[in-house]
Fold:
Amino acid sequence: MAKNSGSAATGAAFKTGPSQNVPREVQASFLLWLTAVAAGVVETIVRVIDDTRGTDSPGLRVRVA
Structure:
């Protein structure tokens, strides 16, 4: 595939890095929110796996860790 496939707007739409218009506090809170959601997803996966095995209280172990 060619480096420049003809669309000039594509490069601007997919720039990585923080936007200069968003305050750092908002970026930090969004990152923390994503981390909390990811931790909840991991805890749910661990809970489902351990419940299918019949072990005891995996949610507590995840919260303590």
Remarks:
- Residues 24 and 30 are 10 Å apart (CA to CA).
